Task: inverse folding
């Protein structure tokens, strides 16, 4: 039987754009049908913005690649209408173990917080994630939403103009030209779009190689994340074992810098390595193997005229901490509502600059965390290795050293502190939900709070009266009235000690501003600030 | 803001110094370096205060 990633999911079909005498102009063209490109397109279509996705092949991700999806991207995918099948299929895990040499140094439990619809993490092969996203795209098409996915459409040239972008596209039927008011490049770490526009991509290269092997095996290892420093089966290096659905196990072996890639990629050399790790009697089959090295880097800005960059095309991190696809989906979440307002003429072009500002801030946070993990896993100097080993040897006996062990800090959403879109705050409400932060889920009488948030500006009136039907600049605000005591989680997360609160929420479920009393003028001012048309 | 104590604070300073040297007796350079690293981490955690730690690091860097 063929694997899902070997079957064409969006085979080439001739589009009528190829027969047009003058190039057809689309509001938005997306390059790349990975998780980020599909996320952008689904979100736009849900907002009724016509979108065309161009991809240079016709299949989902080859091999499992990204496997760890955190709560925030799952919430975004839920808003996009495809989170549920992912959570259902995915492997949920909470326990991690860290080994040093032969010994278990310690175990940790992520201890799930109550009152969230989505789990802290799931493991799911990227090809399943993409398959469910393509299914969602097909369902939107069936509903008549304006979304098109063109396989085997390779973009060979990009021309930037003041108010549009021109694309030269190659297909099995030959080339054609198409135009877009806005181009969104989601074409991966080696982004041809970035290269064709001659844009920078600066950062730090880590001199190391990792072998990823996904094996199918019936094994009685528990559903836990196991990480080894300097294990007997991979001396002086690290190793990771993690479970995916369908009895697929992710094995990640650090190889060091000076290796012979071709030699290491040969199955006859991989199999003994895996037996040394899994036991001589282990029965397994290789599903997918890859050797990767990585960089931590980003573009200076994620906007260049009418082209916006999202996902790995804009920023790249080490895989430790699951910050690649997870942060890319947060890019799309930030981008789409802004583009919708600009396309509708309800917000100025300057709003798109804040996409770059906010997501550059997010990327820097990810790069910092990812670089720190990498420096712990692969010490760059003798003294750095000495402290690393000191931490590991102390961690077994002493609890204090365990938070210093860094085998990847798992992705949490970024709070846009200092963003120009943030409005007023009050210190009387819990700090975790300050302006710029993402809404925390909580049970309400009308269902999960996050199921009720998103896609438009909303006023959360908790334990306070607020008018309905507010709006400014032709942008409507939907009012959601909640009692102060709908659930203990809602009270703790949104009110703290306060009796009531008003939260102005952005369409991406981030907090724009908040107050402890109702003030209509202040709310409308905050709406203008949040859409880059404030007085100041 | 807690200040870094840089006035004498250890009773029987000579005894402490002798203990510190004795800690490294019979160890190779590599073993001693590892002991020092563990000692720094233990002491840093005991102090806990990031301000004090930053001041101590800055003083140490001056040499």
Result:
């Amino acid at each position: 039987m063929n694997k899902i990633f070997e079957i064409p999911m969006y085979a080439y079909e001739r589009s009528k754009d190829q027969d047009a005498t003058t190039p057809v102009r689309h509001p938005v063209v997306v390059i790349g049908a990975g998780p980020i490109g599909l996320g952008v397109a689904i979100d736009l279509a849900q907002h009724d913005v016509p979108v065309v996705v161009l991809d240079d092949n016709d299949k989902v991700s080859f091999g499992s690649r990204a496997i760890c999806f955190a709560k925030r991207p799952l919430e975004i995918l839920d808003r996009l209408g495809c989170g549920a099948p992912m959570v259902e299929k995915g492997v949920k895990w909470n326990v991690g173990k860290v080994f040093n040499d032969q010994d278990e140094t310690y175990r940790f439990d992520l201890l799930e917080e109550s009152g969230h619809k989505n789990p802290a993490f799931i493991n799911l092969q990227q090809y399943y994630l993409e398959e469910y996203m393509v299914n969602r795209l097909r369902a939107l098409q069936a509903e008549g939403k304006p979304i098109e996915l063109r396989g085997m459409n390779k973009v060979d040239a990009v021309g930037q103009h003041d108010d549009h972008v021109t694309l030269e596209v190659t297909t099995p039927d030959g080339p054609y030209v198409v135009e877009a008011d806005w181009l969104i490049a989601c074409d991966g770490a080696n982004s041809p779009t970035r290269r064709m526009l001659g844009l920078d991509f600066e950062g730090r290269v880590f001199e190391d190689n990792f072998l990823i092997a996904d094996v199918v095996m019936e094994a009685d290892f528990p559903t836990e994340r196991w990480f080894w420093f300097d294990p007997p089966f991979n001396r002086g290096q690290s190793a990771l074992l993690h479970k995916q659905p369908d009895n697929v196990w992710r094995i990640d072996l650090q190889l060091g810098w000076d290796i012979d890639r071709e030699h290491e990629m040969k199955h006859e050399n991989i199999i003994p390595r895996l037996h040394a790790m899994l036991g001589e009697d282990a029965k397994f089959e290789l599903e997918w193997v890859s050797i990767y090295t990585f960089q931590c880097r980003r573009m200076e800005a994620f906007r260049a005229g009418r082209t916006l960059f999202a996902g790995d095309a804009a920023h790249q991190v080490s895989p430790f901490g699951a910050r690649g696809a997870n942060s890319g989906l947060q890019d799309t979440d930030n981008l789409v509502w802004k583009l919708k307002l600009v396309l509708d003429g309800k917000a100025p072009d300057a709003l798109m600059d804040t996409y770059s500002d906010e997501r550059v801030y997010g990327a820097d946070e990810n790069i910092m965390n990812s670089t720190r993990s990498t420096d712990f896993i692969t010490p760059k100097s003798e003294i750095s290795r000495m402290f690393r080993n000191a931490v590991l040897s102390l961690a077994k006996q002493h609890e204090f050293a365990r938070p210093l062990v860094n085998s990847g800090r798992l992705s949490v959403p970024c709070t846009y502190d200092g963003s120009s879109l943030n409005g007023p705050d009050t210190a009387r409400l819990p700090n975790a939900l300050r302006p710029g932060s993402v809404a925390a889920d909580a049970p309400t009488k009308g269902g999960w709070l996050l199921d009720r948030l998103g896609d438009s500006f909303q006023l959360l009136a908790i334990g306070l009266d607020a008018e309905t039907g507010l709006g400014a600049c032709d942008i409507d605000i939907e009012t959601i009235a909640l009692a102060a005591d709908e659930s203990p989680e809602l009270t703790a997360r949104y009110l703290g000690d306060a009796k009531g609160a008003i939260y102005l929420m952005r369409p991406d479920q981030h907090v724009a501003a908040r107050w402890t009393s109702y003030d209509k003028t202040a709310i409308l001012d905050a709406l203008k600030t949040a859409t880059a048309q404030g007085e100041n | 803001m807690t200040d870094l104590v840089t006035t004498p604070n250890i009773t029987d300073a000579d005894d402490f110094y002798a203990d510190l040297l004795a800690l490294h007796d019979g160890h190779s350079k590599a073993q001693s370096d590892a002991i020092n690293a563990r000692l720094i981490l233990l002491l840093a955690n005991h102090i806990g205060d990031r301000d004090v730690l930053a001041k101590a690091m800055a003083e140490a860097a001056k040499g």
